[in-house]
């Protein structure tokens, strides 16, 4: 039963990854394909892509800040700090200490997904404020 559940989770992780392909680099998809379902290699792919997405997030944050008044910059900083706290707390839940490397991978993928989505959100806001 546990193997069936693990298999179902892996399938859902694959569909989540495919659904977010527009947010991720092509290099990430290629890395995940080459990982061949090996959890440790998949975690490495996620870590590499997270570095890319974190850079994207920081760039979007700075671009948005450049279009804001001092008061709005402070509000953005507060929102971003709360978002980081939410992301980390939410994704930490995925990392079940009794779940092994698979749950570590789920937690890592959560951080990646949340970071990429937040980067996209801030990029969109920067576009709105730049007009």
TrEMBL record:
Keywords from the named record: Signal
Domain of life the protein comes from: Bacteria
InterPro entries listed in its UniProt record: LprI-like_N (IPR009739)
Signal peptide: 1-19
Segments forming a coiled coil: none
Pfam family, one: LprI
Occurrences of domain Lysozyme inhibitor LprI-like N-terminal (ranges): 31-122
Protein's recorded name: Uncharacterized conserved protein YecT, DUF1311 family
Organism lineage: Bacteria, Pseudomonadati, Pseudomonadota, Gammaproteobacteria, Chromatiales
């Amino acid at each position: 039963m546990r193997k069936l559940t693990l298999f179902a989770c892996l399938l859902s992780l694959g569909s989540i990854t495919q659904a977010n392909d527009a947010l991720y680099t092509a290099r990430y998809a290629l890395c995940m394909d080459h990982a061949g379902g090996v959890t440790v290699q998949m975690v490495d792919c996620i870590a590499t892509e997270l570095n890319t997405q974190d850079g994207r997030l920081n760039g979007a944050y700075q671009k948005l800040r450049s279009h804001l008044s001092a008061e709005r910059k402070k509000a953005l900083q507060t929102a971003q700090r709360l978002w980081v706290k939410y992301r980390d707390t939410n994704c930490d839940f995925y990392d079940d200490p009794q779940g092994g490397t698979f749950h570590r991978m789920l937690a890592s993928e959560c951080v990646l997904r949340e970071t990429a989505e937040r980067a996209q959100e801030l990029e969109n806001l920067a576009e709105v404020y730049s007009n």
